Amino acid sequence: MSNVVIENFIAGEFCKGTSGKTFEVRTPVDNSVIAVAHEASKEDVAHAVESARAALTGPWGQMKIDDRIDMLHAIADGVNQRFDEFLEAECLDTGKPRSLASHIDIPRGAANFKVFADMIKNVPSEAYRMETPDGTGAVNVAHRAPKGVIGVISPWNLPLLLMTWKVGPALACGNTVVVKPSEETPLTTTLLAEVMNSCGVPAGVYNVVHGFGPDSAGAFLTEHPGVDAITFTGETGTGEVITRAAAKGLRDVSMECGGKNAAIVFADCDMDKAIEGTMRSAFANCGQVCLGTERVYVQRPIFEEFVQRLAHQAGELTLGRPEDPDTKMGPLISLEHKEKVLSYYRLAVEEGATVVLGGGEPDMTEDLAPGAWVQPTIWTDLDDNARVIKEEIFGPCCHIRPFDEEDEVIALANDNAYGLATAIWTENSARAIRVAEQIEVGIAWVNSWFLRDLRTSFGGSKQSGIGREGGVHSLEFYTEMKNICIKL
Ligand code: NAD
């Protein structure tokens, strides 16, 4: 497979770039090389930013909104027409089960273009009539202009979906983009460039530069003064570095960062639903979902039963190749990440955890053994201040702790530097709302998890991010609002 070559995409053309450097892309299924990618140099990134700038005033900038909307629908259709190619590329890059990527990653990745195209068509504008001392009055009318060239830095856990979650609204609002996908997962971002060309998207509207973060394409892009705003999804530490880079020139940032999300399970929950939801929130995508649950708080009367049932179901998860229909869980993204997750598995034991399930490496067949496999893992009995309770692990694992009172569990859930998401399981809707209102997060689910209406706000509080995307909130970030005041 290593004869697959991944090139940068600048000004509508694929190119190797000028760095002379390449890097290997490996699949975590068995750690074999699946492609070789050309790393963009500082000059290549500058070229991409310049071509994005030129497109703003070229055919893209002059295109009627209706035509732009049609084009975004065509892009979504273009992804769907090549669904199987996108699916294969995403599963190769990430190792995730096809059953998951075919339901989530690819269809939602395509839908992001349609949702925001329709939104820009229907969004109302702001108008205020005001009194003036001379009695004639004035009217204020708001006008939304594109922000300009948007730098998009995306992660590896849901590569197409999280990248188009930014590119869709950015283009819908009339911006142009330079995307730097994760070095772990460059395939679908590159494939999307082919779709852009086949849909007739003008050169320079969508650019892709490949490489790493520091001293590579990521830093070159975020430090480039020609980038008007930066939208980032990834680790909080990386978000801090990028926010510093964006401070130069006072450029706007949207930060979707890490989480250490709590699930709260009350004794009056529907236990079957709570188990099913927590199975997904803790173990889907091998635990590599920013919204995933790594801390579970269960009310004492049902604690033992919950632990036993969750452990039983997690113990039944079949690990295997993406294409195997029986596969329920894939590998982690890389051997490096596997080492990080295993270091937390060891730390949990050092910190005094009772290992209810897993805690190490699974026995895989010889062909899969070199891959980034870890066991689904459940702990109990950790101290509330243990690092395993405080830090984001980003693996298929959770700690379960009993609680007695509502106030107690609210305090426990909030005792964390992150504030992304929570899932509350109870059949008492007054309690659900009361608790949800007090949890310091951007997204609170009641009796569900990962249920997303794309019109709603998405983002985290505390160290989980800055700003909100989704629905009109994306428009806030991707447009520059101008007030036009007309004296009558
Ligand atoms: P990461 O921060 O390591 O990398 C994300 C991207 O940033 C990659 O493209 C990387 O190359 C780039 N990058 C790294 N250093 C950079 C620098 N100095 N300058 C510019 N770019 C740089 O994150 P990851 O490991 O790819 O993703 C996992 C993390 O993402 C987890 O913390 C997870 O919680 C978070 N995440 C958050 C959300 C959300 O919506 N809040 C969604 C998915 C993932």
Give the oligomer, counting copies of the same chain as homo and different chains as hetero.
single chain
Q: Which CATH class of the largest domain applies here? A: Alpha Beta
Tell me about the largest β-sheet: 7 strands, mixed
Please state the structural category: alpha/beta
Query: Which bin fits the share of residues in helices?
Result: 25-40%
Radius of gyration: 23 Å
Task: Write up what this structure looks like.
With 488 residues, the protein is of the alpha/beta class. Helices cover 39% and strands 22% of the residues. The strands form 6 sheets. Strands 15-16-17-14-13-19-20 form a 7-stranded mixed β-sheet, sandwiched between helices. A 6-stranded mixed β-sheet has the order 10-9-8-11-12-22, sandwiched between helices. A hairpin with a 7-residue loop joins strand 6 and strand 7 (138-146). Helix 6 packs parallel to helix 7 (159-172). The longest helix is centred in the first third of the chain and has 18 residues, at 105-122. The structure holds nicotinamide-adenine-dinucleotide. Nicotinamide-adenine-dinucleotide (NAD) binds next to helix 9 and helix 10. Residues 153-157, 162, 180, 182-183, 212-214, 218-219, 222, 233-235, 238, 241-242, 256-259, 290, 392, 394, 420, 460, 464-465 line the site of nicotinamide-adenine-dinucleotide.
Defining traits:
488 residues, 17 helices, Aldehyde Dehydrogenase, Chain A, domain 1, 23 strands, Aldehyde Dehydrogenase, Chain A, domain 2, alpha/beta, binds nicotinamide-adenine-dinucleotide, 6-stranded mixed beta sheet, single chain, 22% strand
